[in-house]
L,D-transpeptidase family protein
Amino acid sequence: MSSESRDANKGTAVLYERAASGAWQPVSAVWPTRNGVRGWTEDHRQGDLRTPIGVYGLTDAGGLLKDPGSKLPYDQGRGFTPPNSTNAEGEPLTGAFDYVVAINYNRVPGHTPLSWTRPMGNAKGGGIWLHVEHGAGTQGCVGLPRERMQELLRRLDPAARPVVVMGPRTALAA
């Protein structure tokens, strides 16, 4: 998942899988994404409205709606009801947490995405998810169109140890 600049909150994503040859091959079209309202950061802090740059594991999923066929452990329930009715830009959050995949930034893998355990401490933020896009930048998560979230949930295989690589293109090229 990447965008043109450090301050951009719109970008793109492509799903890759490793071929038998060991080479990475794209297996999806280019998907539109939304990230933190203020873009990206290498030093994420709670409430900074930026998405952390890096490579993070994807081990746990969940959402308000029934599991669409995820191979990842899936926690479904009302706990995924947004705490506020609008996002950082005042757009409604309706449906944003219907499907989520926890990004293993400052969290303990193997627990529900709702877990508040923060190994680096609360000041470093947490609760960074891939979730359904809601029409605006996020508080630090990455939003994908609903259909892409469903597809992603069905494709992510824990045996393959999936990761997300995310940030501005200039940081990812380094």
User: Anything to note?
Assistant: The longest helix spans residues 146-155. The first strand starts at residue 2 and ends at 3.
